[in-house]
Amino acid sequence: MEHGRITEWTKSLCCSAGTLPSTYLGLPLGYKRNSPLLWRPVLEKFRTRLAPWKARYLTLGGRVLLAKSVLSNLSVYYLSLFKMPVKVSTEFNRLVSNFIWNSLDRRKIHWVN
Q1: What tens digit of pLDDT does each residue of 8-62 get?
Q2: Distance from CA of residue 65 to its chain's centroid?
Q3: Residues in a beta bridge with 23
């Protein structure tokens, strides 16, 4: 009964029916509130934009500027609708500090917290 009704609605609206979880306007739908899974696409984009090979060719100031610009742009859209869990915030901070301080494939001391 329900499937037939949904099919009828989709035909009348000229659209298709989907399942959750899915995305709409780049935002995920159907996840539990404040779930770390909700933030997985943002973390992946963050990792790819702050790739270790980019750090190799930048000065310390360049790495800081790139990290700040990526941080401020990627998560703002999500933060306008969702509250970031502490676990995800910790992961963001870890990625940024590793990008800034571990530039030449060797571990350095994190001088600034």
Answers
A1: 888 888 888 877 777 777 777 777 777 888 888 888 888 887 777 777 788 888 8
A2: 19
A3: 28
AA identity, residue 28 = P
Three-state DSSP class for residue 91:
helix
Q: Phi first, then psi: what are they for 51, rounded to 5°?
A: -65, 145
Query: Per-residue confidence at 110, pLDDT binned at 50, 70, 90?
Result: low
How far apart, in Å, are the Cα atoms of 85 and each of 72, 88, 90? 17, 5, 9
* 21 prior amide bond cis, ω within 30: yes
Q: Tell me the CB-side half-sphere exposure of residue 32, using CA atoms within 13 A.
A: 4
Answer yes or no: pTM beyond 0.70: no
CB atoms within 10 A of CB 75: 20
CA 19 to chain centre: 22
